[in-house]
């Protein structure tokens, strides 16, 4: 790991600690940035290698609902419910990714398969309204401050937990990026047949990164619901949240370590600004603007905000030497 990268990570962590001295509102925003940054990083682990998933809302929804249901109906602590949801999300990812990889479903066909997956999970949640609350959502049973229930009334306590999880997500990114599997996935992204011809196990590498991405996404969804103490299909499942994940990761820069977190900062700042300025007079404004901005980013800034800044800084020394 280079000294420049270490210095950047230390600076990012120090900046992330600043909100501890801020108001509850700023802490609330900071917790969301960290948790969504973690989820977007989980998606980018796949997306940066050409495995474009439009159905990560399925894994986010499983992570959000399973611990809450186990807690409400069976009094199972989230310390057990969250690992169970992560395992279930990974199992679902395996059930979809294995046959898709086996028959070589790639590109936009793979994206469509994942898109259908996200919608199926959302529809199942709505259909089981007697258990899940349907479109109205549900609230995990509140017990106040409790490590057993993973409930912290003070936002600063949950902020520290979110910070630890976010750092863990960055560590997984670096582990994958520095490993030999990263080179194999890059080769698969360039030409799958050529990669297989030189001895790369295409199925194993694809499944590995897919399962890791799905598991991390479920973990992020579980913690997000534990923080809000409320869950409904619109916020954690379905097409809308899946497209939000894709947009934020691309907008921030899915090829950069901190790019997805920059995307979280950008999207949350945009959402809060729209809420403040428009209130309830422009319902659906966020999704409309997300779609328009996604087109603009793909055309004019394909490496995202952070990727564009890094490219600009890389060109400056050459320009100065010239």
Q: Can you give a write-up of this model?
A:
There is one protein chain. It is globular and about 55 Å long. The two termini are 30 Å apart. It has a single domain, classed as Orthogonal Bundle (ABC transporter involved in vitamin B12 uptake, BtuC). Helix content is 77%, strand content 0%. With 322 residues, the chain is mostly helical.
Q: What name does CATH use for the topology?
A: ABC transporter involved in vitamin B12 uptake, BtuC
Count of separate structural domains: 1
N-to-C SSE series?
A: HHHHHHHHHHHHHHH
Mean pLDDT: 86
What's the CATH first level?
Mainly Alpha
Instruction: Count every helix, treating DSSP H or I runs of 4 or more residues as helices.
Output: 15
Beta-strand content bin: under 5%
Structural class call reads mainly alpha
Salient structural properties:
single chain, 322 residues, mainly alpha, ABC transporter involved in vitamin B12 uptake, BtuC, 77% helix, 0% strand
Short description:
With 322 residues, this protein is mostly helical. The protein has helices spanning 3-17, 24-47, 56-74, 78-102, 107-127, 129-132, 155-178, 180-190, 192-197, 202-228, 233-236, 238-252, 259-278, 285-300, 304-321. The protein is globular.
Break the fold down into its secondary structure elements and pairings.
Layout (H helix, E strand, L loop, with lengths): L2 H15 L6 H24 L8 H19 L3 H25 L4 H21 L1 H4 L22 H24 L1 H11 L1 H6 L4 H27 L4 H4 L1 H15 L6 H20 L6 H16 L3 H18 L1
Helix pairs in contact: 2-7, 2-10, 2-12, 2-13, 3-4, 3-5, 3-10, 3-12, 4-10, 7-10, 12-13, 12-14, 12-15
């Amino acid at each position: 790991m280079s000294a420049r990268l270490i210095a950047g990570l230390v600076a990012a962590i120090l900046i992330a600690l600043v909100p501890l001295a801020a108001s509850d509102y700023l802490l609330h925003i900071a917790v969301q940035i960290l948790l969504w940054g973690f989820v977007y990083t989980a998606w980018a682990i796949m997306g940066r290698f050409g495995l474009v998933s439009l159905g990560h809302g399925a894994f986010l929804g499983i992570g959000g609902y399973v611990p809450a249901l186990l807690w409400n109906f069976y009094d199972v602590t989230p310390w057990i419910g969250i690992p169970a949801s992560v395992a279930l999300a990974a199992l679902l990812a395996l059930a979809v990714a294995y046959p898709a990889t086996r028959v070589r479903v790639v590109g936009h066909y793979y994206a469509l398969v994942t898109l259908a997956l996200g919608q199926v999970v959302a529809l199942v949640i709505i259909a089981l309204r007697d258990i899940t609350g349907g479109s109205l959502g549900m609230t995990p049973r509140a017990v106040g401050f409790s490590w057993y229930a993973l409930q912290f009334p003070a936002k600063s306590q949950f902020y520290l937990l979110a910070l630890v999880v976010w750092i863990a997500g960055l560590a997984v990114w670096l582990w994958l990026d520095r490993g030999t599997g990263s080179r194999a996935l890059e080769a698969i992204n360039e030409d799958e047949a050529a990669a297989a011809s030189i001895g790369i196990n295409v199925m194993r590498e694809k499944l590995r990164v897919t399962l890791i991405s799905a598991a991390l996404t479920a973990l992020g969804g579980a913690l997000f619901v534990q923080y809000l103490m409320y869950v409904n299909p619109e916020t954690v499942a379905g097409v809308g949240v899946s497209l939000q994940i894709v947009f934020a990761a691309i907008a921030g820069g899915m090829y950069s370590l901190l790019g997805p977190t920059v995307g979280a900062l950008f999207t949350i700042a945009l959402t809060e600004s729209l809420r403040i300025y428009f209130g309830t007079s422009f319902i659906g404004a966020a999704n409309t603007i997300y779609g328009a901005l996604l087109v603009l980013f793909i055309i004019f800034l394909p490496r995202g905000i952070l990727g564009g800044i890094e490219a600009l800084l890389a060109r400056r020394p050459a320009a100065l030497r010239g």
